[in-house]
């Protein structure tokens, strides 16, 4: 068994869709980034790649025209195939999304379903916890959203 840790943060910006965990969240601002800037999936991808010693999201999916506006769910599907090709399977993911707003708790089930489907695992293997930072830091000021993820993988 191997464990990986992932982290990501993106600023909020006007004129962007807010996509977290593969789910579009109603909001006046979305996350700025080269792809769809899905902070939760980016953290999960880094946790998975790290656990398997397969690099990181920036190495696998660089800021090139090919990935401009890319769906992070599609990138996650590619990582799932890469893990399988290297003899790994997912045991579980535990992730935390830190945002002062909008409230994400009503969207967690959809996030878990989309992430589980992209990884080809049952929803019970995907844990997601939305949290607030109680007014502290850039997330507390409503300037952005960050996510942390831990992935446990095992040899097939």
Order of strands, widest sheet? 4-1-7-5-6
Terminal Cα separation, in Å? 10 Å
How many structural units, i.e. domains? 1
Q: Roughly how much helix do the residues carry, as a percent range? A: 25-40%
The rounded Rg comes to 15 Å
Give the oligomeric state of the chains in this entry, treating copies of one chain as homo and distinct chains as hetero: single chain
CATH topology: 60s Ribosomal Protein L30, Chain: A
Task: Give the number of DSSP strands.
Answer: 7
Task: Give average pLDDT, whole number.
Answer: 97
Strand content: 25-35%
Question: Helix count, per DSSP?
Answer: 5
The assigned structural class equals alpha+beta
Describe what you observe in this structure.
Helix content is 30%, strand content 33%. It has 156 residues and is of the alpha+beta class. Helix 4 links the parallel strand 5 and strand 6. Helix 1 runs parallel beside helix 3 and helix 3 packs across helix 4. The protein is globular and about 45 Å long.
Sum up the structure in keywords.
5-stranded mixed β-sheet; single chain; alpha+beta; 60s Ribosomal Protein L30, Chain: A; 5 helices
Structure, briefly:
The protein is α+β, with helices and mostly antiparallel strands and 156 residues long. It contains 5 helices and 7 strands, in the order E-E-E-E-H-H-H-E-H-E-H-E. The protein is globular.
How is this fold's topology laid out?
Layout: E1 2-14, E2 18-20, E3 23-25, E4 29-31, H1 39-51, H2 57-60, H3 72-85, E5 88-98, H4 108-119, E6 126-131, H5 137-140, E7 144-155
Helix pairs in contact: 1-3, 3-4
